[in-house]
Amino acid sequence: MSRLPILIAACLFLYHLPSPLAAETDSPTTAYSLLQSYNFPVGILPKGVVAYDLDTSTGKFHAYFKDSCSFSLVGSYQLNYKSTISGYISENKLTKLTGIKVKVLFLWLNIVEVIRNGDEMEFSVGITSANFGINEFLASPQCGCGFECKESKKETYDTSLPFVSSS
Known about the structure:
Layout lengths: L3 H13 L5 H4 L5 H7 L11 E7 L4 E6 L3 E5 L3 E14 L2 E12 L2 E4 L2 E5 L2 E5 L4 E5 L23 E2 L5 E2 L2
Antiparallel strand pairs: 1-2, 2-4, 3-4, 4-5, 5-6, 5-7, 7-8, 8-9, 10-11
């Protein structure tokens, strides 16, 4: 009886095991780690993404939530994420965004672009834009209650290492 089939099967099994280094160099495993790999903080995306896809040749992405996601932030901003959001991602840029709206006064406006400039995040609604400090986005808000959730633990991120979870 030949051992060759067993040896081949063992080699194939070992070949398909992830290497410890592969976790750092292969494509990200979550939408949040994808954001970090393009130099964005995780907090521009609320908790609850159930899946995502990315075409690495074009940067086209989709992120999927179970349902739409709405919450308010301090400063009277209300945000709404549809169950599917999409756009194009590249280093420090999210463009042609769809599925994200912000309420300004009485109007709901589509956020169409997000650009990171150093320690600032610029959010554009097409006709105007607003800048915010990157420290505002080191944690992800939760659908329904934003950062004001009483029943859930607020995740924090180590600011000495850009966008790396401290937990």
